[in-house]
Amino acid sequence: MAAAEQRQVRPWPTGAEPRPPSLASRRKIRNGFNLCSPLVLFVLVALLLPAESQQMHGDYGFCDARCGDAELSSTSPTKILIKGGTVVNAHHKEVADVYVQDGLIVSVMHGIKVNEDVTVLDATGKYVMPDSSRVNETGGIDPHTHLGMEFMGTETIDDFFSGQAAALAGGTTMHIDFVIPVNGSLSVGFDAYVNKAKNSVMDYGFHMAITKWDETVSKDMELMVKEKGINSFKFFMAYKGSLMISDELLLQGLKKCKSLGAIAMVHAENGDGVAEGQKKMIDLGIKGPEGHALSRPSVLEGEATARAIRLATFINTPLYVVHVMSIDAMEEIAKARKAEQPSGMSLLPLQGLGSVHCKQPYVAYNGPITSRHLCHFLIFSDIPAISWLSQTFSPFSGFSQTSMPFLGFLRHSRVSLPFIGILEHSRIEGFGKLGIYEVLAFYGGRRVIGEPVVSGLILDDSLLWDPDFTTAAKYVMSPPIRESGHDKALQAALSTGVLQLVGTDHCTFNSTQKAFGVDDFRKIPNGVNGIEERMHLIWDLMVETGQISVTDYVRITSTACAQIFNIYPKKGAILPGSDADIIILNPNSSFEISVGSHHSRSDTNVYDGRKGKGKVEVTISQGRIVWEEGKLKVEPGSGRYVKMPPFSYLFDGIEKADEKYLSSLRASVKRINYAM
């Protein structure tokens, strides 16, 4: 238990007020933390270097005795200076040095002087930013993994050691795994996963699955949130007879999540429909891997996604849809997000001190928010937010052309947080200088997050029809990889902000385990790899092709995850006080994925043979260099459990929406009892 409770990553620096555990809580001003850049620090090569083909180094069966590229102790220095680069975050860039000591980013500024005991990385002529070129980033965060998971009569081949080692080699420095209850017990399941993670080598957090409902489960959910650092619970709408829950249970779980400030997550497939589809395929004599995809058509994913969204709307609580694999599911999320309307706004400082919080009825501190509290220059990327602002403050009384010369300067961006602005603090009590702010809109409608995974963005289902069973079976996962066309649609949704962040659903089984279903696709363990490949593949797929910017890449691979699960800016940011989880990625270097060189224990890889641009050359975890020149330096047991506090920004404004709902009921009606 001690390992799991080693530390708590607070959403704000020491001395900040924690969010009270109630929906009526208000986000307070946090002082003393210089938020100068979101997410991961990358060092981008500014000069055009010749593309150098570099195969992902390693040894298949990373943790086997024959593996020779890993040193099982970390002797890397804990003082590192990244010097002279252009530090770029999601909304700002500047030429600066970045100094790391004892696992934390200590300073981001120009001309830092250090002693001889500091390792210096010269970034002159390069960009230092979240994920890009030769980018030095605070590392990617994978929101969706299954390490050491017992499932379908076996256990995933990658445990917390081999899976995390693979992650570090690929530039991911934190992941969030799913705890599966033991016989429905959350506490027993948590203890089991604490034990599984004893050999961990990097930071990790936990989600918790809910597989049954009773008073004990309800009380255990409170324990998980208040004491164990879990702020998200997953409900399986599929896997009938094992993990699947009913709508009644889902409703109870949604209500409990709302009361605790925890995010409800769903695996959205109609489990009854899948069971019927499986029976149909077997009756038709279709027993191979192709039967898996045919039995779970996208309409069943779309139906379950729509149902979950509507039930979450009914309860008025945030919903996170994991592994969105189809156009059907994506369109339901798009409709829900389009229906959302901002009910207030929160300003998180990216540069300068403190934060400002504004909510309906637009109260900042104890005074009303009027046009004087707005900024001289706003850049919006969320059209509903623009509409809300216009309606709320129209006709912008109190502003003159002199004081607000750039009022009409509105710009729509493909991917960004709800909206961004440059604020004049001096117009708000307690602030006296200009600073750059990240602005989060609070939605009074549905708060829906959509998470695609790498396999759904890149692959299609064609290889499920491969005549070689071993080849076909390695692509079996749920929801299934879809036919060509769904991948492109999901990429477009990611690039336009309909979907918000990218996971992997890393859940690996080797060819022997997959062969359990050689005569019946229903017995093939579901799952594919991706924890090592994600950062490379998303860079090549989305940035190299121009679908998203470098700053968008940082957001979808790290910052958004940290914000959603309330560990920002300790994670997902390059700021003084943030954890020193950094990667250096060279955009001009090429990679090639190979089952013979990856660090997973599996003897299969669904991306085997894939080549692309953008290679992670250095990974820094907890302030130590753990991946450099194709070699890992990891220490079993050095991983840290990251507690995730409840009531992330997704919960802001919920109580106001509840009040509005109650006031709209016009009930109960007093009636005359004529019987008297």
Automatic annotation (TrEMBL):
It comes from the Eukaryota. It catalyses: 5,6-dihydrouracil + H2O = 3-(carbamoylamino)propanoate + H(+). InterPro entries: Amidohydro-rel, Hydantoinase/dihydroPyrase, Metal-dep_hydrolase_composite, Metal_Hydrolase, Metallo-dep_Hydrolases_sf. The modification N6-carboxylysine is found at K234. Its EC number is 3.5.2.2. Residues 139-282, 489-626 form the Amidohydrolase-related domain. GO terms for cellular component: cytosol. Keywords: Hydrolase, Membrane, Metal-binding, Phosphoprotein, Transmembrane, Transmembrane helix. GO terms for biological process: pyrimidine nucleobase catabolic process. Residues 1-23 are annotated as: Disordered. Belongs to the metallo-dependent hydrolases superfamily. Hydantoinase/dihydropyrimidinase family. This is dihydropyrimidinase. It comes from Colocasia esculenta.
